[in-house]
Write a structure and sequence with these properties.
The chain has 3 helices and 28 strands. By secondary structure, the chain is an alpha+beta fold. The chain is elongated. Keywords: Membrane, Transmembrane, Transmembrane helix.
């Protein structure tokens, strides 16, 4: 065979080889794409059937049905499992470094698994996990609105179970409507402290996104322990108090004009006529900010004027206001009364209109009245502020009494809260269902 004939044969062989390789590549790529598409389709069908399962399970868990069955989508290379020992929810209240648990329970789950993708029913919601994270498919049973949290905790119980193909999932009640809070010994409204909802779950990132979407409470994620915690504020109580009962815990202060009433009646100690008065109302939010309103003594019943000073520190700068002639016998903000022995009682209405003079150039606020300043800075320091009284007297005696009789002196406070981060009414039940696959 001459060289020309040999080259033609080689060309044909190369052409056939290229064609075979091309076909193989197409088959491999198309096969991978087809498998991917089939996997995505199977997961989508599992999501749809799990969402239907969610709706049917809610009927049972909330006491509206004695049992429900759902035909699940075909597993298509995956499987369904009942996992009763997975996940945990803890609902608790923290007050003054003391934690009271209302409920601490496993959640359980019903899971469709295909490769590294899971679609799971847990806590009354449906979650999708792809190994790198999780997201919500349908929301759990968790309703937070107008400072009220309604939380029917749904628990999947029974034995571990699994199935392939297109199984039927049967949901039956085991223990429905167990009252957790309120109960015979614990009641609404909640006062003081923080209500925490903690979820430990491999779908914790989905839970975290849900908490952020549905509340403006503080959400903390612990990836190492697959845990998310939601904190909601139980607002402090308003009303009257003696000065022995401070500090007062103000919780969930609204961000605009929160102080509705803040008054004090100061009675002198046995051997004082307030000439040695050194009394302060201090606000502390646990950070770098500090607010203080101070009265320096004088016997108002002898026509002497206490000096009023207000200071606010933001951690870097300090702003100060003063008034040396604020007190009048019938004043709206700073007033006094005298008994038959000419002993004084000082009356403070810290929502009042009496102006204070800014000590500096341009004041950082436009309204320098006492009420506006108190309102502005407590809102600035919120939502959680402790108010305490310091009453040392000019001679700085030991203790916290000084020239003021704290037991005989009184105050009153009322304030508004932001319902988006406060919980006043809590309703928690535990609802256990049994799930089987067949």
């Amino acid at each position: 065979m001459d060289a020309r004939g040999q080259s033609e044969v080689v060309g044909v062989v190369l052409l056939i080889g290229i064609t075979v390789i091309g076909v193989a590549v197409v088959v491999i790529v198309a096969g991978g794409a087809l498998e991917t598409a089939q996997g995505q389709s199977a997961v989508q069908r599992a999501e749809q059937s799990m969402s239907l399962f969610d709706a049917r399970s809610a009927l049972v868990a909330l006491g509206r049905s004695d049992g429900q069955s759902v035909s699940m989508a075909r597993s298509e290379g995956g499987s369904y499992e009942v996992r009763p020992d997975t996940g945990r929810m803890i609902v608790a209240k923290e007050t003054n470094n003391t934690t009271t648990e209302f409920v601490n329970t496993t959640l359980g789950s019903v899971v469709y698994e295909r490769g590294d993708t899971e679609v799971a029913y847990q806590g009354g919601g449906v979650w999708r996990s792809t190994g790198a994270g999780a997201e919500m498919v349908s929301p759990p049973e968790f309703n937070y609105q107008d400072a009220t949290l309604t939380l029917p905790v749904i628990v999947v119980a029974g034995g571990a179970d699994s199935a392939v193909g297109g199984p039927s999932a049967r949901v039956q009640p085991e223990s429905i409507g167990d009252q957790i809070f309120p109960d015979a010994s614990r009641a609404n409204p909640l006062e003081n402290g923080t209500v925490t909802v903690t979820v430990e779950s491999e779908y914790f990132r989905g839970w975290a996104s849900f908490f952020r979407q549905r509340t403006t409470g503080n959400v903390t994620v612990d990836s190492a322990n697959e845990t998310v915690e939601l904190d909601l504020i139980a607002r402090g109580s308003g009303g009257g108090f003696t000065l022995e009962e401070t500090p007062l815990e103000l919780r969930g202060l609204a961000s605009d004009d929160p102080i509705e009433d803040l008054t004090f009646d100061l009675e002198p100690a046995k051997n004082s006529d307030f000439s040695d008065l050194d009394w302060s109302l201090v606000a502390d939010n646990g950070g770098s900010e500090r607010f203080e309103l101070n009265l320096q003594g004088a016997n108002v019943c002898n026509n002497k004027q206490p000096e009023v000073t207000l200071e606010y520190t933001d951690g870097g700068s300090t702003y100060a206001w003063e008034n040396n002639s604020a007190f009048t016998e019938n004043g709206s903000t700073y007033s006094y009364s005298c008994d038959a022995d000419n002993d004084p009682t000082i009356h403070l209405d810290l929502t009042g209109p009496t102006n204070l003079t800014y000590q500096g150039g341009s004041a950082p606020v436009s309204n320098n009245s006492t009420g506006a300043l108190v309102d502005h800075f407590l809102a600035e320091m919120g939502p959680n502020v402790d108010l305490k009284v310091l009453s040392k007297g000019k001679q700085d005696p030991p203790g916290n009494s000084g020239s003021t009789d704290l037991a005989a002196s009184s105050g009153s406070i009322e304030y508004s809260s932001s319902s988006s981060r406060v919980v006043t009414f809590l309703h928690v039940t535990k609802n256990t269902v049994n799930v089987t696959l067949s």
